[in-house]
Amino acid sequence: MPSLLVFCVLFLLPQLAFSITRHYTFNVPYYFHQNVFAYLETITYFQHLFFSFFFLTCSNICVSYQIKSHNVTRLCNTKSIISVNGKFPGPRIVAREGDQVLVKVVNYVPNNITIHWHGIRQLRSGWSDGPAYITQCPIQTGQTYTYNFTITGQRGTLFWHAHISWLRATLYGPIIIFPKLNETYPFEKPYKEVPIIFGEWWNVDPEAVINQALQTGGGPNVSDAYTMNGLPGPLYNCSSKDTFTLKVKPGKIYMLRLINAALNDELFFGIANHTITVVETDAVYVKPFITDIAVITPGQTTTVLLKTKPSIPNATFFMMASPYFTGLGTFDNSTVAGILKYEKSKKKLPLLKPILPAVNSTSFVANFTKRFRSLANTKFPANVPKIVNKKFFFTVGLGTSPCPNNTTCQGPNGTKFAASINNVSFAMPAKAMLQSYFFGQSNGVYTSNFPVNPPFAFNYTGPPPNNTMVSNGTKAVVLPFNASVEVILQDTSILGAESHPLHLHGFNFFVVGEGFGNFDPNNDPAKFNLADPIERNTVGVPSGGWVAFRFLADNPGVWFMHCHFDVHTSWGLRMAWIVLDGPEPNQKLPPPPSDLPKC
Predict the structure, then answer these.
(1) How far apart are CA 542 and CA 520, in angstroms?
(2) What's the pLDDT score for residue 347?
(3) How many of the other CB atoms lie within 10 Å of CB of 60?
(4) Which of 129, 157, 183 is the last residue of a domain?
C-alpha cells in the first residue's frame, strides 16, 4: 500500500493547482480505486491534511469505476445487484470546492443507466444532471457518457445515485467536498471523517417490485432491511456478521457524514449514550446545535460531530436508525444497527441501545427541522430573496387513476395508486426534455402550462374530497432568468397525510417557513424567516402541513422536482421547471456534449 501512495504522489506532484479537473472513469481496473479510498477512509484529520495536499490538488486522479452486475449476500440471501466496480455501496467522489469533475460512465449491464449527482448545483451544466428523460436519454448497454461539472460554492456532504426506475437501490455512493485549499471548517477540527450512508435491502430485485406495483396499481412490497454502509446489522436474522463497526479513541472528535440513500423511508438516527452536533446539511454549513437524535429524509445529507468519551467506557454502543412514517400504507418497520466501539476496550462489554422516537413522532420531526439555521455571516451569507416576483402554490400528495378496461387493479376501491403535484401526475416523456427544449422541439414532448395553483380549492388537510382522480400530463413551469421564486408545498390528506421529501435539481433553496394544517396566505408569510433560513436541496413537507421556500432562478436549463420517496415519484409526484437563458453569454446553457446519449 505505501508504494502505491508514493507512486500517486510522485505522479501528481507536477500538476498542483488550486481548482483542478478530476477525471473518473467507470471502466478501468478496480484495485486502484479500492485501495486508495480504503486508505482515505481510515486516516486521521492531520494525516488527511498531508495526503489531501497531494491527492486533492492534482488534475489527473485515476479513480476507476465500472457499472456491472455482481452477487451480494445479505440476510442469508444471495442475489445479483447492479453496482459500480463490484462495490456496494459505491465508491466515493472526493473533490474540493471549485474543482471540475469528469466521470466517464460505461454501461455493461442490460438495464438503461443514468447517474445523478445529487445536490450539485450544475451551473450551466444541466446536460450532466442525470435524471432520465429530463436532462438526458439513458446510457444504453455498451454505451458511455461523460458527466462534466464544476463544484461551485459548495462544500460538505452530498451523494450520487442512479436516476432511472428503482436502480438507485444499489447504485449510490458519497460525494465529499472539502473546502478550498488554505480554508478550514467553521467548526472544531475532526480527528477522523467517516461517511455513514443508509440504504434499503430487498431479497428480491427492486425492479421487479416496482414493475409489479405499477402493473397491478397496488402498493409495492417493502424492503427486507435497512442498511448502514451496505450492512443490515445484528438485529436482523442471519446478519450478525454483516455489521458496520466504528472503532474510536477516547477524547476525540469524529465527523460523521450521514447520507440517507434509502428509497422510501425517512429515518431517525442515534448513538447510545452519546450526543452529536449538527454542523452541515446538503453541503451547506449551519449554526451548530446539539442533539441526541437526528432525522434525515431520503435525499438529505447531515454532517455531525461526535465527541467521544474522555476515557474508555465499560460498554459498547449501538448506532441505530429506524423509520419515521405517518401514512396509511405498509412500510419497513425495522431497525438497522451498527456498533460504536472504543479501541482497546474489553472484549465482552454490555451493548447499550439508544432510545429512538416512535415511528409516527411528527412533533419530534417538526421540532428537529426547525433547529436548522444558516450561518448567515459575511463569509457564508444567506442570500434569500427578500422580494419575489413569481409565486406558486403546489399541493403534493397521493390520488388515484382509473383501472384499465378488462383489468383488475389492487389500488383503492379497484383503482390504481397515483401521486401528483397540483393534481397533475407527471407522465415521463419518451425523449429528453432538455434536448427538446434546447432545440425548440417541444411539440409532442411536453407543454408549458403547469398550473401555478391547485385546479380546485378544498380543505387540504381535512376530510378528503370524494373525487381523488388525478390528471396526467408532461407539463413544465417556465421561469425567466433570475426570477425570484417562492413556492408553497401543501400536503393533502387524500389517501392519508404523510411527509414528502421534495428534491429540487439545479438549485439550493431557502426554507423560509413551515407549519401544520392549511397554509394561510394572509397570516403565515409575516412569520417567514428571511434572516437566517436554512439552505437545502431537499425538504420534508410536514405530514398534514406545509413548507415555504424561495430561490433565485439563476441556472438556465430544465430542472426536475420530485418526491424522493421513489414509490411516489414512480406514481407521478414530479414536475419540471424550465429556466430560460439570461442576456449575457455566461447566463446561457451551452450546447449539448457530443456524446450525449440518444433515445
Answers:
(1) 15
(2) 85
(3) 13
(4) 183
Q: Which 3-state string (H, E, C) describes 163-223? A: CCCCHHHCCEEEEEEECCCCCCCCCCCCCEEEEEEEEEECCCCHHHHHHHHHHHCCCCCCC
> Over the stretch 492-539, which tens digit does the pLDDT of each residue have?
999 999 999 999 999 999 999 999 999 999 999 999 999 999 999 999
Range of the domain at 254: 187-374
Is the per-residue pLDDT at 15 higher than 90?
A: no
SS3 25: strand
Report yes or no on 40 lying in a domain: no
- Per-chain mean pLDDT for the chain: 91
Cβ atoms 209, 221 nearer than 8 A: yes
Kindly state the average pLDDT of the residues 26-49.
Answer: 34
CB 45 within 8 A of CB 189: yes
Split into its structural domains, the chain has a count of: 3
Residues 467 and 553 in one domain: yes
**CA dihedral for 94, 369, 261, 128, sign (positive or negative):** negative
For residues 250 and 258, give the distance between their C-alpha atoms in angstroms, rounded to a whole number. Answer: 21
Contact 192, 246 (CB under 8 A): no
Distances (CA, A) of 288 to 157, 188, 264, 281: 16, 11, 28, 11
Could you read off the pLDDT of 381-412 as tens digits, one per residue?
A: 999 999 999 999 999 999 999 999 999 999 99
Whether residues 322 and 179 fall in one domain = no
CA 135 to chain centre: 17
Q: Measure the CA–CA gap between 341 and 339, rounded to whole angstroms.
A: 6
Question: β-strands 144-150, 115-118: how paired?
Answer: unpaired
Is 366 found in the same domain as 223? Answer: yes
Per-residue confidence (pLDDT) for residue 346, from 0 to 100 = 86
Strand, coil or helix: 586: helix
Each residue of 419-462: pLDDT tens digit? 999 999 999 999 999 999 999 999 999 999 999 999 999 999 99
Same domain, 167 and 192: no
At 563, the amino acid letter reads C
Quick count: other Cβ atoms within 10 Å of Cβ 430? 11
Distance, CA of 25 to CA of 331 (rounded, Å): 37
Tell how strand 93-96 and strand 172-178 pair up.
parallel
